[in-house]
Amino acid sequence: MDKFEKGIIAASIVISMVLFFSVLVARSSYKADVPECIPADNIYTEGKAVMLDKNTWQLYYVARMWLFDPAEVEIPVGSEVDLYVTSPDVVHGFNIASKNVNMMAVPGAITKTTVTFDKPGEYPITCHEYCGMFHQIMQGKIIVR
Amino acid sequence: MDVSKSFKHVLLMELIVPTVLLVLGVYHGLLQTFYRAGIIRDTSFLGIEYYQGLTLHGVVNAIVLTTFFAVAFGNAVVHFYLKRRLNDRVNWISCLMMLVGSVMAAAPILSGDASVLFTFYPPLKAHPLFYIGATLLVIGSWLAFFNWIGPLRQWRKENPDAKTPMAVIGMFTTFIVWVIATIPLAIEVVVFLIPWSLGWIETVNVSLMRTLFWFFGHPLVYFWLLPAYVMFYAFLPKLAGGKLYSDSAGRLVFMLFIILSVPVGLHHQFAEPAIKQGWKLFHAVLTYGVAIPSLITAFTIAATLEHAGRSNGARGLFDWMGKLPWFDSKRYLFAYLLGGLIIFIFGGATGIVNASYNLNMVIHNTGWLPGHFHLTVAGPVFLAILGGSILMLSTITGKPVKFPKLSVWVPYLWLIGLFMFSSGLMIGGLDGEPRRTNMGLSYTNPNSPLYRPEWIATTALTAIGGTVMFLACIFYFMVFFGTWFAKPKTSGALEFPVSEAYHDGPRVKWLDRLVPWTVIAVVIIAVAYYQPIKDSINFSGEGSPRYLPTSPAPVISKPPEETVMPE
Amino acid sequence: MAQDNFTPPDEKFVPRGAVAFFALLMLIILVIWFAIYFIMLSRT
Question: Is residue C33 classed as helix, strand or coil in its secondary structure?
């Protein structure tokens, strides 16, 4: 193999390693991660907001054709929130764009991620997976005060 | 090389039928940009409903067109470079299966009974004919590939020390990846979705179905891309007026695609439950691996073009880029291939972003995604299909290319439109615009409580870009159909460019034998997928019944009627 | 086919332009990648 080609292969591997290392730094130091894998033994059927203490919450969402339940939740600024989502019907998306919250609601499973809301505001939850004829109006909201 | 009448007819059907369907596919692509921008604020337009049209667009452009072209191009490449006839009967059976399958899948889409998009994720259900038709299309494509194996074996017996021609290696790589990839698809569709859509089984495990689909869905993009790579390695050096910089680099690239195209599918599932994070991370690393043959290609083709430019008198560091046949209408294929390569710089870069585990959380299922994949499947893949189709049509029929000066402009006009189109989608996506959504009914409708004025500028940019792309396609159709309807000037024969290499060498066994690499591929795939498949079953619960897009109530099959036994 | 006669190339060709192009390509990839990376970090 020509020496330039070998050099290119080496450079490509080095770049990949730089990127992978950066991914790991973000994962450990910034807690930027993909959803967790949790068992699906107790799939809940209704949405609910659970306050563990003033700044620690668990929000159990049901994404279904064509709304999020609970539709609107209010939580105090600085809260760390465990977000769970499931679906009783088809696959939906669950996206809070400004917070890296990006989950698929898959029937028969529960998706979980954790997020901290350190800035007040209104955070729309958008469904970004086609789920039938009213997909385009499927939206929820988290209000952080 | 002369082609028999029968082979000519098979090739022409495989080229022309998808191009005709493409007219409809491209039309609805344009319309989608209008719906998203709120120019159309309705559920349907001129009789086609948004999600129905979206399904049509994905299936025609990304499944039918691409599969037919890969088969036609592979048939032509094997015939031309091995100088061997292919079995006519198998060719016809393959072609007819693909045609019947396509029509069978298209019918329910057109009747509104398969508005499930081209990923057909359950538990949204399509009409059974959609799944059955898709199965026939795939099996037909397998038959075309099996038809090439005998001729290659024969050729190797007669030429034991010769390297297998690069283009043939490339097309075999394409279809080895395809056959491996379509196995999980066949399991998902034949074992589960067809019986489920017919009501013979009540539920399917959606997590498992998705994992099987994306086991297929990532190598699908290499099935699309590799024929373009064949053109980059086997045609482009000659077209540019130079030599391929390194023959062995090209061959290594194809072998790497055999082993790395498949075991990466979880990078489409980063946002899903029922798969452990560790396995998602592993697939991300493997995806970095499959980026490497593309990076090797970027360098090797650049070096090839530099060689060509220097043969034309270039002396500086970059001026060789100027000394290339960008607008030579006699070598129009150069423009199609280079247009695709320039686009692919950004398609590949954004793909590396998507594969990067946690970065995916920023962009998954937003407008960024169609922004990215139009820079790949609608970039090098689409332009190679367009250029390659004119080339084969024109040479096989002996009809000179109609409007040749217009033809050479098509890829550049397309590129300009595409960059506008994808920029709008990617910027909008970073701002939270969802994909696969009829936004004109809500997010880009000022009369809707969900109105997002901040998404108007980006969707407008995409609509303008889409319009320019559509215009490029109109010019292309003028060239393609103008050529088809013109009078033949010669009797017609298959003609492909034959390139030479700068760094060349004798046959290297380990770069020329496909079976060992295929075995390695299967081992890596088994390691990468065994546990994720188990996880997707173990971490999910009950299966799901059928749903139609129009109702939250599931479709339960009727209880079986009582049968009256004859006396 | 000229496969069996491998005459060494007449002029030595050093692909310096391609190396420069590849470096630019790496730069483009890194710029796009880190742009998204820092967007991700800002959203944690």
Answer: helix
The CATH T-level fold of domain B1-160 is: Four Helix Bundle (Hemerythrin (Met), subunit A) (1.20.120)
Q: Given a cut of 60, is residue B340 above it in pLDDT?
A: yes
Among B359, B364, B419, B423, the residue to mutate for chain C (most C Cβ within 10 A): B359
**Secondary structure class of B44 (helix, strand, coil):** strand
Q: Identify the band that residue C12 occupies on the pLDDT scale cut at 50, 70 and 90.
A: confident
Residue whose entry in the numeric block shows the structure tokens 């989502």: A85
Distance from CA of C42 to the nearest CA of B (A): 11
Mean pLDDT of the region A52-81: 97
Beta carbons of A37 and B270 less than 8 Å apart: no
pLDDT at B314: 87
B393 in Cβ contact with B12 (< 8 Å): yes
Residue A53, Cβ density class (10 Å: 0-12 exposed, 13-18 middle, ≥19 buried): exposed
Residue A58: strand pairing partners:
A50, A82
Provide DSSP, B173-215. Answer: HHHHHHHHHHHHHHIIIIIIIHHHHHTSSS-B-HHHHHHHHHH
Tell me how many helices (H) and strands (E) chain A has. 1, 11
Domain borders along chain B are 1-160, 163-234+242-324+508-541, 326-501
Tokens of B211: 């994992």
Which pLDDT score is estimated for B519? 98
In which band, very low, low, confident or very high, does the pLDDT at B566 lie, cut at 50, 70 and 90? low
Candidate from A32, A90, A106 with C-beta closest to B274: A106
Q: Quick check: B304 pLDDT over 50?
A: yes
- Judged by a CB distance cut-off of 8 A, whether residue B500 touches chain C is yes
User: Is B159 within 8 Å of chain C by CB?
Assistant: no
Residue C36 C-alpha from the chain's centroid: 21
Q: Does A145 touch chain C (CB under 8 A)?
A: no
Looking at chain C, which subunits does it touch, using at least 3 CB pairs closer than 8 Å as the criterion? A, B
On the question of pLDDT at A132 being above 70, the answer is yes
A32 touches chain B (CB under 8 A): yes
pLDDT confidence of residue B561? 54
Cis peptide before B484 (omega within 30 of 0): no
- Beta-carbon-side half-sphere exposure of residue A133 (alpha carbons within 13 Å): 13
DSSP one-letter string for A11-33: HHHHHHHHHHHHHHHHHHHS---
Task: Yes or no: say if B431 and B115 are a contact pair by the CB < 8 Å rule.
Answer: no
Scanning every residue of chain C, which has its alpha carbon at the shortest distance from the alpha carbon of A23? C37
Q: Return d(Cα C19, Cα B304) in angstroms, integer.
A: 12
B307 near C CB under 8 A: yes
Q: Write out pLDDT tens, residues B89-109.
A: 999 999 999 999 999 999 999
Instruction: Tell me which residue of B215, B293, B138 sits closest to B525, measured CA to CA.
Output: B215
DSSP B380: I
> Is this prediction's ipTM beyond 0.90?
yes
> Is residue C1 predicted with pLDDT exceeding 80?
no
Q: What pLDDT does B72 receive?
A: 98
Residue of C nearest to B347 (CA): C29
**Residue B557 pLDDT > 80:** no
**Residues A19, A24: Cα–Cα separation, whole Å:** 9
What is the signed CA dihedral for B102, B105, B107, B113, rounded to 10 degrees?
-160
Task: Quick: pLDDT tens for B33-67.
Answer: 999 999 999 999 999 999 999 999 999 999 999 99
Whether pLDDT at B559 is above 70: no
What would be the CATH architecture of the domain defined by B326-501?
Up-down Bundle (1.20)
- CA torsion through residues B263, B269, B271, B276, sign: negative
Please, how many CA atoms are within 13 Å of residue B440, restricted to the half-sphere of its CB? 20
